[in-house]
Amino acid sequence: MRTAYSVETVRNAERELMARLPEGALMQRAAAGLAAACAQVLGRVAGRVYGSRVVLLVGSGDNGGDALYAGARLARRGAGVTAVLLAPDRAHGGGLAALRRAGGRTMSGESAPADVARADLVLDGIVGIGGKGGLREAAVPLADAAARSRAAVVAVDLPSGVDADTGEVRGAVVRADLTVTFGAHKPGLLIDPAREYAGAVRLVDIGLALPAEAAEAEALQHADVALLLPVPGAESDKYRRGVVGVAAGSARYPGAAVLAVAGALRGGAGAVRYVGPAGDAVIARFPETLVSDEGPKRAGRVQAWVVGPGAGDDASTVAEVLAAEVPVLIDADGLRLADPEAVRSRTAPTLMTPHAGEAAALLGVSREEVEGARLSSARELAARYGAAVLLKGSTTVVASPDGGPVRVNATGTSWLATAGSGDVLSGLAGSLLATGLPALDAGSTAAYLHGLAGRLAARGAPAGAHDVAKAIPAAWRDVRGD
Ligand SMILES: NC(=O)C1=CN([C@@H]2O[C@H](COP(=O)(O)OP(=O)(O)OC[C@H]3O[C@@H](n4cnc5c(N)ncnc54)[C@H](O)[C@@H]3O)[C@@H](O)[C@H]2O)[C@@H](O)CC1
Ligand SMILES: Nc1ncnc2c1ncn2[C@@H]1O[C@H](COP(=O)(O)OP(=O)(O)O)[C@@H](O)[C@H]1O
Ligand SMILES: [K+]
């Protein structure tokens, strides 16, 4: 599990640890890890550290201090290091002295862009977890120069200007190739749009003790997903594995039903029941589906329902499904048709799977606002509806109604932005719900497999939603190491 902690939690842990260590020890740990990472980057871009050109962008806080100490280490190994001081009278004193002793030079911001343009490596120590809002005016030309230069840009702790706690980006920020972060990941390193500015992320252990339950966000890894995947045992039969009901599709959108069933068949349930007007299309493609002409109530027992993909205006089916006392996944048209009160008063778990546009409609804000604030949007919806919420997009975020860390999915690919891939996801997640996984686990496991399947299906070329569904078994095998 990759876990991310809020700034407040990180600062508390730092304070506790600092009280037990000699003055400045933590910063030295951070700087040592940072310098080692920079040396590796310089090896790649300049062939070696000795004789390479390094520019440090140094703000007025400890983030700048880290950059200065790391710069001093690189200067001692023969790099030509120049520190650009954004606030010369407030730059970290100890760091500045160390850099000067090591032969580094300093300059103020105005003439710096030319040096940045010639650098092999730019170290962004403008601002870290102490930052508020986007970059201040004086720092913007430096961030622009770094973006234009052919130098590798390494961010200290965070790309300067992003919101560490939320992943929001308000104003100008530094775009990094690599972010070296200290003690713990911050949510902003896992969640777009900020994540996109971080580049690759490397964590340097500085000895902070951070309990898993205090995490703000977490990203499942292969090993975590492997433990969650339901695997049939000797005593399993199709009913014990779980039956998932899919109430989807309409005369206008029969394909949504086919794609949701395609996902559901590959999600671990022992059987898929389909109810709705697209039964013929479903059977033609997937003869193993149990198709019913009756509504959800009379379709036979299921352990979870998926409702909504391609449902058009069929509000009564949505209402019928919501009345069932089993877990329900609501997607697409179902989100619009569901009565909020009926969702809130459900006793069994509910999982809602909106994309940003659907979430925006439910929240009464713009799509851009949701895309800019994924974490708070997912949490807000989960709280309003008393449901788990899986907010789809470039970073998929899954929030529980009762708080706790959000799950962030890192396996996706923008090739998944193709019509119908969301239908596949809802079938897959519903199937996992039917096997007995809690909503948060079902949603995050489905997003993980779906992202991986998207990568396997696309391999750098466009793939249709049905290709993604077909690649789900390969994603399972990959996760399980088979
Ligand atoms: N606290 C600790 O024990 C450790 C902290 N470390 C480093 O210390 C950093 C935090 O240091 P600070 O608390 O001094 O805070 P920062 O250095 O992150 O930022 C504070 C300074 O930046 C300025 N600033 C705020 N918002 C800005 C913006 N939008 N644009 C430009 N400047 C802005 C503020 O005026 C303030 O002077 C971490 O990110 C990390 O790099 C590491 O050395 C590890 C140990
Ligand atoms: N830029 C992106 N990067 C990664 N995944 C994406 C991106 N855009 C969309 N996706 C994923 O693709 C799927 C699209 O679902 P959705 O928007 O519901 O499409 P549809 O309604 O056509 O099925 C979701 O799983 C979403 O997370
Ligand atoms: K930084």
TrEMBL record:
Residues where AMP binds: K392, G393, S394, T395, T396, G422
Domain YjeF N-terminal residue range list: 10-214
EC id: 4.2.1.136, 5.1.99.6
Gene3D superfamilies registered for this protein in UniProt: 3.40.1190.20, YjeF N-terminal domain
NADP as UniProt keyword: yes
Binding site residues for (6S)-NADPHX: 62-66, 128-134, 157, 256, 310, 355, 423
Annotated ranges, domain YjeF C-terminal: 221-479
Protein name: Bifunctional NAD(P)H-hydrate repair enzyme
Species whose genome carries this gene: Streptomyces olivaceus
